[in-house]
Amino acid sequence: MVEVEFENIYGAPPQEIVGAYGAAVQFSPLVPGAQSLEDAAPGSLNGFAILAPPGTVERRYTLALALRALRPGTRLVVLAPKDKGGARIIGDLEKLGCDAVETARRHHRICVTSGPGDAMAVASAIEDGRPQRLDDLGLWSQPGVFSWNRIDPGSALLLEHLPALSGKGADLGCGIGVLARQVLTSPKVTDLTMIDIDRRAVDMAKRNIEDDRVRLLWADARTVKDLTGLDFVVMNPPFHEGGLENQALGQTFVQRAAAILRKGGMCWLTANRHLPYEAILKPLFKHGTMIAEADGYKIYQAQK
Ligand SMILES: C[S@@+](CC[C@H](N)C(=O)[O-])C[C@H]1O[C@@H](n2cnc3c(N)ncnc32)[C@H](O)[C@@H]1O
C-alpha cells in the first residue's frame, strides 16, 4: 500500500493499491463533470494518483500535465496493469526528467515520483498530446479519443449507407463528430443531440461542428434523462470500458436507443461483426435488418 491519502486522482486507480480516496478531486476526461488537468494552475495540486491511460502519447501528455500541476515536493503515484501500459510508465517518467521508484503489485506496475521533471520535456509532451487539426480528415482531434487520427472502418461503412435523415435525432457516443457531420448535411434534420463520455471528444466535436441544430453533452449516454420521442438515432456503440471488452455497454446503447425513439423512429447502427446485437435488437424493435456487411463490420437499420 502506498501510504498517502490522495487529494487528486485520474481515473480509478485500484484502492487496494493506492489506498482510499473517496473525497479526492477527479481529473479524468472520461468522468463527466471532472476537473480538467489542462486548467489546473501550475504547482497547485497536493499529491496525485493516476491510473495511466494505455496510449503512449496520451499517457505522456497526462503525466506531463500532472507534473506541471503538482506542488513541488508532493507525491505523484502512477500505475497501470503491466500489459496496459504499466511496463512503460517508468520509462515515460524518465523521459520527462523524473527519478521514479517502481514496484509491482496485483498485476500493476506502480511508479512513485515527486517531479517536477524537466521543463522542456514536460512542455514537449504537452505539445505532442494537444488537440490538433488533421488536414487529411479536415477534423480536429486529440490523441486518446476513439480512433483519433483515422475514420473508423465501421463508421465509414455506416456513412456509406446512411440516407438523408429528417427530424429530431441523437448520436450516442458521438466521438469527434464523424457521423454527426454527415447527418447534419440533411436540411430536414431539425435537432441533433450528440453525447459522449469523453470530454476531449466533446471538445473536438464542438470545434468540428458549428451548427445551431446541435446540442453537445459530456455525459454517460446510459443515464441521460431528457431525450424522448426521437425520429432517429445513429451510433457506433462502444464495447470497451476501462481497456476491457464489455459487450453489455454496447447492448445498453441499443436499449437506450429503443427507449428514446418514437414509435416508427429509426436506429442506424454499425458494429464489429463479432458483436451479438441481433438478439438485443429483436425484442426492442418492430423490424431490424442487417443492411450491409463488409470488412468485419455490419450495419443495422432498426425501426421501433
Ligand atoms: C466506437 S466509438 C464511436 C465514435 C464516433 N461515433 C465515430 O463514429 O467515430 C464510441 C464512442 O462512445 C463513447 N462512449 C463510451 N462509453 C460511453 C458512454 N457510457 N456514454 C457516452 N459515450 C460513451 C466513446 O468515448 C467513443 O467516443
Walk me through the structure.
The chain is of the alpha/beta class and 304 residues long. The chain has two domains: 8-129, Rossmann fold (3-Layer(aba) Sandwich); 132-303, Rossmann fold. 27% of the residues lie in helices and 29% in strands. The chain has nine helices and 17 strands. It has helices at residues 15-18, 56-69, 89-95, 119-129, 153-161, 178-183, 199-208, 247-260, 278-284; strands at 8-10, 25-26, 48-51, 76-81, 101-105, 108-113, 132-134, 139-141, 167-172, 189-196, 214-218, 230-235, 240-241, 244-245, 261-272, 287-294, 297-303. The strands form four sheets. A seven-stranded mixed beta sheet has the order 11-10-9-12-15-17-16, with helices on both faces. Strands 2-1-3-4-6-5 form a six-stranded mixed beta sheet, covered by helices on one side. Helix 1 links the parallel strand 1 (8-10) and strand 2. The termini are far apart. The model has no long low-confidence stretch (mean pLDDT 95). S-adenosylmethionine is lined by residues 146-147, 152, 155, 173-175, 178-179, 195-198, 201, 220-222, 236, 238.
